[in-house]
Amino acid sequence: MKKFIAWQIGPSLLIGALGLLLLIGLIGGGNQQTLRSETASGGSICSPSGDYDKDKIDEVLERAGAFKGKRAAFEHASAKHNVDPVLMIAISIHETAWGTSRALLEHNNPSGQMRGNQIIHFDSLEDGLEMTGQTLNNLWNERGLNTIEKLGSAYAPVGAGNDPTNLNIHWVPTIHKFIEELGGLSGGCEGESVEGDLITGADGFVVPMKNFTITSHYGPRWGAFHRGIDLAAPEGEPIYAAKDGIVTRSEYHFSWGNYVTITHEGGATTLYAHNQRNVATVGQKVKQGELIAYMGNTGHSTGPHLHLELCLDNSLAQDRLVDPYPVFFGNK
Ligand SMILES: [Zn+2]
């Protein structure tokens, strides 16, 4: 009987603990940790180039308890799980009351991850960040909760039964403030474009990278069929939308690695594969020249490059593919 009661009240105790954690977070994030940058708009800023401000991040982490000096650990976990490092840092700071919560100090658990009614114990901060990355990837990329507001509705729902004092109402504005303080997200700037800097091809397409070497052409290759063209560059080179369109895929594939597809007006679809990290999310409207991913070496790839395909429709069927070269570079 005792056990049964314990099981029954377990979740509400936990919820209380989470609330307390949030409360501590708010107090901890209050006076002496006052954020210095408050923009008039109140919205989070973002980086159209996809960069993030490493100096600002280091500055913030310096006063974030156990996260001090841990930027590389955040970068590693966020790259692996295709989430914005700035987002991961902002949430981790909030959930751990500036790197001081017991969950973090005793369990290496930066985001309050629970199993049943137990806070999950990790052997290292790296392991804890790994799980945080997985969770954020699931919410942001797979479930499409790809704004702070949408994420907050799942992470800290306002009016939830487990939030009697309405602390969750602070989650979204607090995360926004932290993101600002950290120098802004590394992507998600709607309408920003570097279109003018990109090589113009035919049919309104531009070459989706600024710096590259063509290393492989479309057609039969090594007894197989190469479905696109390969553009090599050092890892991390930004990849831009070749034309306005809607992002129809942004996910991992065993062969393409992290890849994005954009379906353009009329149905033609471009595919960008082997990315280090995807920035664009499914359903997002992108403008030509807008950052969509960083070039990488994921999936079946023998070196950093962009594998670029052009399909007449969104099927990606081999008999609907066309040689991208004449479209992007003309019949030279
Ligand atoms: Zn290729």
Describe the structure.
It is built from nine helices and 15 strands. With 332 residues, the chain is an alpha+beta fold. It folds into two domains: 10-181; 195-329, Glucose Permease (Domain IIA) (Distorted Sandwich). The strands form four sheets. Strands 3, 6, 8, 9, 10, 12, 14 and 15 form an eight-stranded antiparallel sheet that branches. β1 (114-115) and β2 (118-119) form a beta hairpin. α3 (71-80) crosses α6 (125-142) and α4 packs across α8 (171-181). The longest helix has 27 residues, at 2-28. The N and C termini lie far apart (81 Å).
- H/E element order: HHHHHEEHHHEEEEEEEEEEEEEH
Distance between the termini: 81 Å
Structure summary, number of beta strands = 15
Number of domains: 2
Which stretches are poorly predicted, pLDDT < 50 over at least 5 residues?
1-44
Which molecules are bound in this entry?
Answer: zinc ion
Strand content: 15-25%
Q: What does the main sheet amount to?
A: 8 strands, antiparallel
Averaged pLDDT, please? 81
Which class best fits the helix and strand makeup? alpha+beta
Quickly count the helices: 9
User: Residue share in helices?
Assistant: 25-40%
Q: Given the C-alpha coordinates, what overall shape results? A: elongated
Rg estimate, integer Å: 22 Å
